[in-house]
Input
Amino acid sequence: MNVTAKPSGSRGRSRLRPLLAGAPWLLACAVFLTVFQTSRTRLPDPIATHFVGSGRADGFTSPGTFQLQGLGLLLGLAVLFVALGYVTGTPRPLVVIAWATVGLLSFVLVQVVLGNAGAESARQVRLAPWQLLAALGVAAVTGGVGLLVTRGWYRAEPGAGVRKGAGHPPGLALRPGETAFWTHTQVSRGFGIAGLVVLALGATLIPLTGAAPGIVLLVAGLTLALFSGMRTTVDRHGLTVAMLWLPWPRLRIPLEHIAEATAQDVDALRDMGGWGYRVRRGRSGIVLRSGEALVVRRAHGSEFVVTTDDAARAAALLNGLVERGRGHAAPTDRRG
Output
């Protein structure tokens, strides 16, 4: 017998929504290419591509290389935003962030090209502080455009909201030799969007301040993005929680270490002190959001919490497996 839960994702959402997060990047590529090609004959070789705090150029590259780097950066972020959109169901803030980020980055790339155009030497090129402020202004405008574009695409879904916890469900009856498992995927939009924002900031800083600070942000953003998805599994081995996109790290609680399982509502901040992997007195867990959660009480008394949909079914199966392991018949849950 297989007891499975449907994975979370873009249920009830249009499959075209991720394209909203990717479309502005293609437009930015066209703008960047147009500006670059119309200015190419007036560009020095090499051109200034990196600037210190005073606006003075201290990094240079060939025009052709900069063109490829600019296009690669824009297209790479387009793929990243679209992919994250498919994974997270494309929440509206993701689209707005995509539009704001593309405005910031494309403005900087265009200003680098225009600043070099007509210069006798790349060492004469300056990137004034007002240009960075203007880039933030452009980001605000393009983010606002993204907000307007998405009007009508997002409506409140009926039945949304936190469901009440199911308490202690009876163990699912299992016949001798019968196998069963339950698995569910949980994706945190907050973690994913935060990771994407940090990635975008790192990619923006690399051409402006150098590789070191940008790489630090890229690594931090990638870490956040990777930890934004978890898979929870209940089977004959017990409870296993693993990263969605990587085989490690994973956490497993064997059946013999479990006293009972319940389904509860959990407030991430009030009950667990925040999000991510949390450790509190007598309780630990992996919390990606507030709401429905599977709570496992270990044999030594501490609790482990993992936020997931369909927690009542997971708890029922886990209780049934634990009861069978102890040699007791588990009562059948006839409520469906």
Observations:
- The CA atoms of residues 84 and 303 lie 32 Å apart.
